[in-house]
Design brief:
alpha/beta, D-Maltodextrin-Binding Protein, domain 2, 2 domains, eleven-stranded mixed sheet, 16 helices, 15 strands, about 15% strand, disordered N terminus
Amino acid sequence: MQAREKLSFRHRALVWASALIMLIGLSACDGIRFPDSLSWLQTPTPAEPELTPTSPAETQTTGTPGPTSTPAANRLMVWLPPLMDPAANNDAAKLLKNRLDSFATSRGISITVRLKETNGPGSMLEALGASKEAAPAAMPQLVVLDQFDLRIAADSALIHPNQGFASILQEADWYGYARQLAVWHNQTVGLPFLGDPLIMAYDAALLDRPPDEWNAMRINIGKIGFAGDDPQGRFLLMLYFNEGGMIVEEDEENTILQVEPLAAALHLLRETEMTSHIADAALQIQTPEQVWQGFDTWKYHYGIMPASALLRGMDQTRTSKIVPTLTNPPISLSTGLAWAVTALDPRQVELAEELAAYLTETEFLGEWSEAVKLLPARPSALGAWSTGEMKASLEQASDGALILPDKNVMDRIGPVLRNATILILRDHADAQETAKQAVESLR
């Protein structure tokens, strides 16, 4: 009897111990992270969206990372274009990384950076749409978008209007094109920080300063190179605006150019071509990089290109005294980049706003934009550049810049402007008739 009682006691003790172990194990489950997929677990899981894989080099955690259970309010996911990779081996990257580290440390949060291409499969805009539909938890809280994608993202509710950004833009220290970039349908949807206006560069070691009028192109000494085969027709569009032209959008399907300003712009091109001041190479040029290459190899004496193409090109090759200038009236066309908030959680919205504002403060933006070879959206930041004689022309170009129209408009008028440019330069067409045909083709 005693033996059986002892056995029964031992049996009960083993059962109690086993139960206690199971209880402890269950209570600890919340603190254990299991693999996403276990071969023996047959429970079906929801399908994940097909997003572009992110390699280790495309992800960087800034600040002091918290544990995997860090509350959402204490972390930020930021998506950047490759141009802004804080892990790259250059001065601009180091400046940005230090700035992000400083913000993360001061707020006691973690910041994760992921890189997304600006176009093509897996682009920033495409990834945002895929994440919102199928994996909201993978959405970033702060992103960088160009002027086209910013408007598309706003229309698609991928980003949200931001009153904090609206208050910042009420300050005087912003270029006009930057405000144009940030406001869409009367709402502030982004905080601009970089721009890239068209400028005209010439070699001051070889040539005197060109006349300060677009109409004087036809009497300049030497030849001018520009992207005559640009699918967006940006150079002709700039001349069109300089002639007082406007874009009239009657509805979503009809975008109309005005005949007389377009005819005047084409007449200027025609006269410049007739006096042999436009380089033959212009008809084959499509990109800013090609404009720089032709200018750098002496195929023409003046190059009309975005400021970034000049600044990056000068860093790599020429040692001559190259100066950018902009003729009068001082109107240029610019692209731009802006910060946009995708977060919905109030604390994350606040952190995203604060980080964007921190990255657009004058002292940092001036030093960083000069390193990245794009013009800052704030006059005070461009004033802090150390470019000497070049700075005045860059300031003039920024001050007179207009932001490019939205993508739908450019998709409609770009090919028309390109064809009109080619008709003038290659076929020596009549300016007035070409303008009429171009406008009629848009109806």
